[in-house]
Amino acid sequence: MALGVSGQALAAALALAAFAVPAVAQNAPPADPAQSEDAGGQDIVVTGIRASLASSAAIKRDQAMIVDSISAEDIGKLPDVSIADSLARLPGVTAQRLEGRDQRLSIRGLGPDFSTTLLNGREQVTVGDNRGVEYDQYPSEFFKTVNVYKSADASLIAAGIAGTVDLRMLRPLESKRAIVVSARGQMNEKDKLNPDGTRYGYRASATYVDKFANDTLGIAIGLSAQSTPTQIERYAAWGFPTEPAAGGNLFLGGAKPYVQSNLLKRYGGVATVEWEPSENFHSTFDALYSNFEETQRLRGIEFPVAPTWGSNAVIQPGYTVENGLVTEATLTNVVGVQRNDFNKRTAKNLSLGWNNDFRLSDTIHFVVDASWSRATRTDFLLETYSGTGYNQSGAKDTIHISHNGDGTYDIVPTIDYTDTGIISLTDPRGWGFNGTQTVVQAGFLNRPDFTDDLKSLRASFNGEIAGSIFSRWEVGGNFSRREKQSRYKSYFLCPPGGGTNCTVASGTPLSFAVPADAVLDEQVSLDYLGVPAMLTYDPLKVYGLLNQVFDNRPDSLVRDNVITEKVWTGYAKLAVDGTVGGKALKGSLGFQVVHTIQGSTGQIAALQGGAVTTSPVADETSYTHFLPSATFSVELEDGFFIKLGAAKTMIRPRLDQERITQAVSIDFSKIGLGSAPQNSPFSSNGGNFALKPYQSTNIDVSFEKYFHGGGYLALTGFFKHLTDFVDPNDSVLYDFSPLLSVLPPAQRAIVVAQNAQFGLVKQPANTGRGEILGVEATASLPFGVFSSALDGFGIFASGSYVDSKIVYANNSPVTLPGQSKWIASGTAYFEKNGFQARATYRWRDEFLAELAGLSANPEYRTGKAEGVLDAQIGYEFQSGPLTGLSILAQAKNITDAPFVTTEAGDQRLAREYQRYGRDYYLGLTYKF
């Protein structure tokens, strides 16, 4: 079906092209984006946000592809605090906030896994767990333009299904000499929530651009450093079971109020060297390096609450029920787990690119482009636990819970959780288990690290065509090799003083007194949710005293893996530019042939007879895809364009889904339950090295009206037919007969008699399919178009609607992570005579949010609708001794909008609640 839709769409596009006359090259921004035409055809020079919007409009207008763009207001100055903030203003683009920052971008209802990020046209690796780029690794000061391509082009290598984000650094031969320095201070409205945190930060950058040798050699150098704090009041609920002890009503299963203080430190640099000694040769070398370190301090108390979930708490008479939910209750016999945690992430990103353009004749060019992108990341994720005694043996608490209007619960205890006379380092609920024996788990340490490496070489020929409806041609090929290494180590932490491997049976101490020199002078308060104070100590000091035991459970051992992708892409493209019935037409026809060899190495682990066994495993697969594409832009009237796009695109699955590793389990309790695969004692869980890419057949249409005085209106519709959609939880039947030998003879006989050696292997598979349909509207309007009295005022607003229907093989519906049906964004601004002021409001409907669960595995929950308001005001001196100096004040998250996820579509059942507070910035920039 997908090929049929694609064929019809491309046939229509080819029919339109048959009436065309010759064209110009695509993808060229205007020579001077800071100019716009007035009604009389005269150029008006604008600056700041007006120049940024004018440049973005020019790029959108001149492209045959459907594209939205963000342009820097000046050298080293994108219009928002971060790249992700800026992208989230574009039509059809939303951002999920994590750790108080916009991080996970969704384009047209599809999350980060469905788009790709390019740097100067080259695919980039990521410091994240998968393919989605974390934009924190890219200082916004380094970029001149960010383009989001929403339709495909044959020359756009590594395009995504949802869209392709291309970060563009400035080109020194196209720029004037400049030296720009900038410094900005930051303050969060919340005082530091942890005594070892901070509320103050800074950001500084410097850029130097110059040309030499009669303007044939250009250089651009940028440096950036920042220290960004975040304060987060957090609440997490386990869920809401039906509680028999409360009349069968919904009851809070458990909850953890805690506070988090983050500090992100990042420094980086970019360098571009551009050399054009003659019209026959043009060479450009780019380098980007970014190093960031984020520390997180988290402190809180985890309260198991619902008796039906094993809390052993007792619900007292007199609880309150509202519409089937217990909203207020008192519980006795409660045992909480106090947490003092510390996380540290260190990541580095290096990207190098070298492009050489050789002019072979008056009409033919040969281009060679080589690139290398490499990212490394190491995490130190430390948890430490304290409570009144090991495995519920200490003092019990009486708590009162009461439901709040925002879905959270206040939890008011009676125990003094700061009293070291009753609080010790221990495993308060006896949760520690190493797979075969009980351990005293007074803490846990995860130490994953990742390396993502991508090398690419591209070569192409392009030239002009005379006397034909086609004006230019391009053929080329690209080879890339990507390798992602994921390595995990984890450790049980237990009290020192005896025993082996932290096991209870070996005599490991059940508790350990909190060292007095580790206790901080200031105690953390959780009074925003009812807990007056908790014991606050330095978890790193405690970590240095606890014993460490390597975690060798099967699930832990098989997490290490290496994914390798070798991709050959060949492409050909014809550009069209001319007139049809007196109407200007331009566009392109082309195709890609993509051949992939994809492989993985790792281990298969099993628990047999109480012992963990591992076996190395490696395999690979290959596949080839043909991806046609067509784009056209017709100017029906002066400034009024209709743009069409039709293409087949693909995007590779999450990297963690391509791993070959498997964890095999033997559940003796299932012996004798029957022959159904789910009743087999044997099962396995892991990845699928043979997983194929998602595929999509896309049709796009856009109506765009550009005004002579600047600004435009646009209405865009799109349709995507998706195939090979990945079901992450698919199961296949597997013969586990080789494992029968580990069973005792009597049990083995039962399994064979019932044919129960056939169990299930859980792994992702390409079983899904479906459609996405959407519409986007954009208005970029400088009010000077309507009246000269309004010159300087303007708006940039967008809204979109997306609907999807995705099903797996069993026809079970899929909710797309990151998709909001309705999103809207609006910026109102005034800028004139050096003064500027603007406010931006972003709103999104509810969506399926992705969060990090246990062992950093993704979890999905419904995120509530939210609106975020940002504003800024500034002044640039344009005359006198302070010429070149500008002052800027900004405020982010003025609405103090929380990030909230809920359960079962019930707004009362909050699962995750994060409030970040408002951030304020004050900065100076000087341009020499």
Automatic annotation (TrEMBL):
The lineage of its organism: Bacteria, Pseudomonadati, Pseudomonadota, Alphaproteobacteria, Sphingomonadales. NCBIfam families: TonB-Xanth-Caul. Residues 1-25 form the signal peptide. The keyword Membrane applies. It comes from the Bacteria. Keywords: Cell outer membrane, Membrane, Receptor, Signal. InterPro entries: Beta-barrel_TonB_sf (IPR036942), Plug_dom (IPR012910), Plug_dom_sf (IPR037066), TonB_rcpt_bac (IPR010104). It is found in: Cell outer membrane. Residues 60-163 form the TonB-dependent receptor plug domain. GO terms for cellular component: cell outer membrane. This is TonB-dependent receptor. The keyword Ubl conjugation does not apply. Gene3D superfamilies: TonB-dependent receptor, beta-barrel domain (2.40.170.20), TonB-dependent receptor, plug domain (2.170.130.10).
